[in-house]
Structure to design on (84 residues):
């Protein structure tokens, strides 16, 4: 699970969000940076699905954060362009 904004420490430690598997979601740009650091220079989104939060209390806590399920295909090839 990925998010459009980095989740702050208060939300990461929220027991309700932890129980709902939301607080551990990875910021999409952190994923890109991690992949770049370990040599995957081209990561392509194959599928991206919005994950809805159907709970008013949780929606209030995570206001502005969008959750996604993303399938990536990442390439680690020496002669690949750094951005396609």
């Amino acid at each position: 699970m990925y998010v459009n904004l980095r989740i702050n420490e208060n939300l990461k430690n929220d027991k309700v969000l932890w129980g709902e598997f939301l607080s551990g979601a990875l910021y999409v740009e952190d994923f890109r940076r991690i992949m770049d650091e370990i040599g995957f220079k081209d990561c392509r989104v194959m599928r991206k699905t919005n994950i809805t939060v159907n709970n008013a209390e949780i929606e209030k806590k995570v206001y502005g954060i969008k959750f996604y399920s993303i399938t990536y295909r990442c390439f680690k090839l020496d002669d690949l362009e750094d951005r396609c």
